[in-house]
C-alpha cells in the first residue's frame, strides 16, 4: 500500500495447479478522491475482469467510440490494444489473465469466438457460476484470499491441452525468443499439414495470426525496455535497429496501433505518478 496516494496495486501467481492456464492475477484498489487514469497494456491474451466498485467506462485503443461499461464481470480478449479508464475513490478491480492457451483449456472454445468483444463469462458456460464467484471474491478479506478463491474455482474446469494446442503453445514460446522464425512453416513441416491449415489452427487456439503476434512481440520488447530504462531520452535509432523496425516511423506506427501514443508520449506517461500503467505479467 502506498500511504501517500492511498493506492494498492498487486500482482500474484495463482496456485501451481492452474498456473499453466492462468498466467497472473492483477488487482488494484483506490482510496483517493481525485480520479486516476489507468492503462491496461495489450498482452494478446484473454482476461476476465471483476469490478467490485462503481461501473467503469473502459476505452479500447484510441477510438473514442470503442468503449464498454464494466459492471460486475466481463471477459475480453485477446487484448490487442491498450484499455484506458478512470478509477475513482473506492475503485476495486481484479483481472484474471490467461496464458496463450489458457482460455481454450478453461472454456473449451477457440479464443477467436470472442473476436475482441466484451461478454459476460457465464454466456460461455452451461453452468452459470461467475456471478456466484463475484460474490465470493467481493466477500474475501484481502488480495491473497481472492487469488486462492480464483485458483480453487478454476481448477476443476481446466482441461489438458491436446497435441495441436500444446504444439501451438510451444511455438509461441519459441518464437518469442527467436523473432526470425515462422511458426506457420514450422507447424506445417512438423505436423505434415498445409501452411493454410497451420495458420487456421494457430488462429483457432490463440485468437490471432502469426503475423500479428510477431508484430506484437517486437513492440513488447521495446515497451519492456522503456519500462526499465532511465527517464533520460532513449536512443530511438538504437531501438529501431535492435528490434527489427524498418525506420523510426515504423516504430511510431506500431505504438500508435497498440497504445494510441507515440513512444515519446508513452515514455512520459510511464513516469507520470498520476497515471497507473499496468505492466506485463510476472516473468
Q: If you consult CATH, what is the topology of the largest domain?
A: Jelly Rolls
The CATH top-level class label of the largest domain: Mainly Beta
**Overall pLDDT metric:** 82
Count of strand segments: 10
Distance between the termini: 22 Å
Question: What is the beta-strand fraction?
Answer: 15-25%
Description:
The chain has 283 residues and is α+β, with helices and mostly antiparallel strands. It has 3 domains: 7-157, Jelly Rolls; 163-208, no CATH class; 211-278, Orthogonal Bundle (Arc Repressor Mutant, subunit A), CATH 1.10.10. Helix content is 39%, strand content 19%. It contains 10 helices and 10 strands. It has helices at residues 102-107, 130-139, 143-154, 163-177, 183-191, 195-206, 210-228, 236-242, 248-259, 263-270, and strands spanning 7-12, 22-30, 36-40, 47-51, 56-60, 67-70, 73-76, 83-87, 92-98, 275-278. The protein has a 5-stranded antiparallel β-sheet, with helices on one face. Strand 5 and strand 6 form a beta hairpin. Helix 2 packs antiparallel against helix 3 and helix 5 packs across helix 6. The mean pLDDT is 82.
What is this structure's SSE topology?
Elements: E1 7-12, E2 22-30, E3 36-40, E4 47-51, E5 56-60, E6 67-70, E7 73-76, E8 83-87, E9 92-98, H1 102-107, H2 130-139, H3 143-154, H4 163-177, H5 183-191, H6 195-206, H7 210-228, H8 236-242, H9 248-259, H10 263-270, E10 275-278
Parallel strand pairs: 3-10
Antiparallel strand pairs: 1-2, 2-9, 3-8, 4-7, 4-9, 5-6, 5-8
Helix pairs in contact: 2-3, 5-6
Protein name: AraC family transcriptional regulator
Pfam families: DUF6597, HTH_18
Keywords: DNA-binding, Transcription, Transcription regulation
Amino acid at each position: 500500500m502506498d500511504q501517500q496516494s492511498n493506492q494498492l496495486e498487486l500482482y500474484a501467481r495463482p496456485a501451481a495447479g492452474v498456473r499453466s492456464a492462468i498466467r497472473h492475477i492483477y488487482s488494484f484498489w483506490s482510496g483517493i478522491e481525485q480520479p486516476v487514469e489507468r492503462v491496461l497494456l495489450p498482452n494478446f491474451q484473454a482476461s476476465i475482469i471483476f469490478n467490485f466498485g462503481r461501473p467503469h467506462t473502459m476505452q479500447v485503443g484510441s477510438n473514442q467510440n470503442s468503449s464498454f461499461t464494466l459492471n460486475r464481470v466481463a471477459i475480453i480478449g485477446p487484448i490487442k490494444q491498450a484499455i484506458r479508464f478512470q478509477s475513482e475513490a473506492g475503485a476495486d478491480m481484479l483481472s484474471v489473465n490467461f496464458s496463450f492457451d489458457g482460455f481454450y483449456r478453461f472454456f473449451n472454445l477457440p479464443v477467436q469466438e470472442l473476436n475482441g468483444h466484451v461478454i459476460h463469462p457465464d454466456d460461455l458456460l452451461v453452468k452459470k457460476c461467475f456471478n456466484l464467484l463475484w460474490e465470493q471474491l467481493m466477500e474475501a478479506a484481502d488480495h491473497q484470499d481472492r487469488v486462492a478463491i480464483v485458483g480453487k474455482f478454476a481448477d476443476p474446469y481446466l482441461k489438458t491441452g491436446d497435441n495441436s494446442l500444446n504444439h501451438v503453445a510451444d511455438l509461441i514460446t519459441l518464437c518469442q525468443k527467436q523473432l526470425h522464425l515462422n511458426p506457420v512453416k514450422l507447424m506445417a513441416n512438423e505436423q505434415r499439414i498445409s501452411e493454410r491449415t497451420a495458420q487456421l489452427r494457430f488462429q483457432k487456439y490463440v485468437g490471432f495470426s502469426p503475423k500479428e503476434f510477431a508484430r506484437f512481440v517486437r513492440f513488447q520488447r521495446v515497451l519492456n525496455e522503456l519500462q526499465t530504462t532511465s527517464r533520460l531520452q532513449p536512443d530511438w535509432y538504437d531501438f529501431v535497429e535492435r528490434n527489427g523496425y524498418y525506420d523510426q516511423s515504423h516504430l511510431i506506427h506500431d505504438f500508435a496501433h497498440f497504445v494510441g501514443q507515440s513512444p515519446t508520449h508513452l515514455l512520459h506517461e510511464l513516469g507520470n505518478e498520476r497515471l497507473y500503467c499496468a505492466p506485463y505479467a510476472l516473468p
